[in-house]
Design a protein that fits this description.
The chain has twelve helices and nine strands. By secondary structure, the protein is α/β, with parallel strands linked by helices. The protein has a nine-stranded mixed β-sheet with strand order 6-5-4-3-2-1-7-8-9. Helix 1 links the parallel strand 1 and strand 2. Helix 3 packs across helix 4, helix 7 packs across helix 8 and helix 10 packs across helix 11. The chain is globular. The structure holds iron/sulfur cluster (SF4) (2 copies). The site of one iron/sulfur cluster has 12 residues, from loops. This is Radical SAM protein. Its cofactor is [4Fe-4S] cluster.
Length: about 325
Amino acid sequence: MFIADIAPSTISVITTYRCTAACEDCCFECSPSIDKTLTYDEIREFIISASKEYPSIKLIVFTGGECFILKEKLFALISMCTEMGFITRCVTNAYWAKNLLRARDYCQKLVDAGLGELNISTGVSHQKYVTHQTIVNAAKALLEFGIPTLITVETDSESSSCFKRLRAESIIQEEFEKESPGIKIQINSWVRFDKKNEVRQAEQTVSSLNYGCDNLFDTVVVTPDKEIAACCGITMSHIDEMNLGHMSQVENYGKQIDDFLKIWIKTEGAFQILKHLGASQNKLKTINHPCQACAILHKDKEIKEVLINNYSEHVVRVLNKVKLQELKG
Ligand code: SF4
Ligand code: SF4
């Protein structure tokens, strides 16, 4: 039987489900009223044990919720990772940059701790809590301190233009004129979890639906529920198969070696699998993110039955594809 190569490059620490914002459609339903948070010691011990178990680890990501809520503990954890030789990344809504002086103070601490990269999430839902000007302040301070930054903007609604407005800021325009800009900006497809909210993406236009999932077997995730997850996809908390047990059992991540469905998702992507299984157009047309397809694949009773009865027809083709991908490197 085929065995997958499990050599993850990344540990992703979902430090807390608490957040300074409460964006509609947040995938973990984070908000200021949620308390679930990993402690400093729990995070520290997990990073040490997971990186020992998987020597292939190179990058440690701190995310949430809002990881900056950990304040000094976050800076201490980044310093520890830097001393251990890892690259680090924080994912934040940038609430800490409301005032430029404070933003500079945070950036100084990030530089002192050796942070490798900062990712900022923003867009029309986020900006109800963290304003456009706060994001501009963060960009300014991060550029001054030379911290490589990626700003991810939600797909705009028909009435919003957060991406255009950010792109038009003089500080961003000047940076983009340089040969190697210190800031990148990208648009992310925004998934509507609450059906009352507006759909913000033309149906079936998302190219990521055509590819396999890079996250599987590459990112060891630990959650504020003190559990290990197989990926940090936006629907992972709704998919039981992504839960790999208590955070003390880091070896469970490596036990996925013969999980054919995960190998298949990694190779062709959940959306393409749904197509192979003959999912109806009605089901397919509602999907604009690979993780939505993944949730349907694991949770839709009809699809699950077709999967169980027919997966064996796909084993040889998928495993051949894996071997070909390995040969191409
Ligand atoms: S900022 Fe991010 S984590 Fe916080 S509520 Fe919004 S989407 Fe969720
Ligand atoms: S597609 Fe599935 S396996 Fe991949 S990140 Fe999304 S939920 Fe996780």
